[in-house]
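CAAX amino terminal protease family protein
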Amino acid sequence: MLLSLFVLFRLKGTSTATTVFRGGGFKVLPAILIYGIFNTALPEELFFRGFLLKRLMQKLAFPLANSIQSLCFALVHGLIFFKAVDIGSTIMITVFTFIIAYGMGYINEQKGQGSIIPSWVIHAAANIFSGLCAAFMVI
């Protein structure tokens, strides 16, 4: 989460998915929870680790399959900011997101018996954290 603060700091002043919560304090907490758990984390985990990684693992060794799903996940997240921030920040976001995605794929498949629940919890926690940072104007 500490590394996430650095990423959020680099995005300061940029419109993000959590901008809508900016300055809302406790009154936006229910919206942050819905956003963090169900609106973003669940569908992304279902697609990237629940569908894409599982299909890739049917054809490829786990390290390569996990790298491909991580790259897809990272590119989607990096491209969102491509026109909004400088190239260095875009690369940083993409690399950071790749590493996190690879770790979540590893945790699911190697430690979580193939369940997406571990990565869903991690992903939701990160989204809630960024929403709370916006709501209480930490960044």
